[in-house]
Amino acid sequence: MDTQQLRYVVVEGPIGVGKTSLARRLAGKLGAELLLEAPAENPFLARFYAEPARFALPTQLNFLFQRADQVRALAQLNLFSRTVVADFMLDKDPLFAELNLAEDELSLYRRLYAHLQPQAPRPDLVIALQASTDTLLARVRQRAIRYEQPIAAEYLARLTDAYTRLFHRYDAAPVLFVNTDGLNFVDNAEHLDWLWQHVQKMRGEREFFNVSTSD
After folding, report:
1. Radius of gyration of the chain (CA)
2. CATH class of 3-15+31-214
3. Which of 49, 84, 108, 138 has its CA 20 to 30 A from that of 203?
4. Which helix (H) or strand (E) holds 30?
5. pLDDT in tens, 134-187
6. Sheet containing 84-86: which strands, arranged edge to edge?
């Protein structure tokens, strides 16, 4: 892969997998623009984790409008002059809707999504982070964001499965799957170097990276 030609890189994965941390460090390494989700700006999120059935719809719709606005802004950036690294892609919004909404709510969501018709530029590379449920739960507990503490292992397992199914059918861009169970991009700069070396060596549209591939 010609990394000099990368203009739009997406880091994705389930809650607690470390996508925002990696996106920050990758943007720093590349001197890139950073585009991050803003979950703290969703006024329903804390209430959703406390009462999922009651607050799933307003939480999801708030995220939909937020992500649509961000995608609109992304489309206006000059991707030919500077690389953008994002910690989300629009394709994951329906994933969370299907996971959390009741049938009638999901029907309403799909109508609104179709009406908005949000579209994002095609990524040059998607880095899909993966981890075991135990690892995800431990990281959620460690970062100690209060409203995330009610998250259960069962929900993280379902979310991981949903991401697996999403990327099983995703073919819009090259995907590098990264097992993060043994990686720490926050405290170990060498791990980021290993990852970037693998990106530079990519030849296929779907490749896998874990600690052992650095040997």
Report:
1. 17
2. alpha beta
3. 84
4. helix 19-30
5. 999 999 999 878 889 889 999 999 999 999 999 999 999 999 999 999 999 988
6. 33-35, 84-86, 8-12, 125-130, 175-179, 206-209
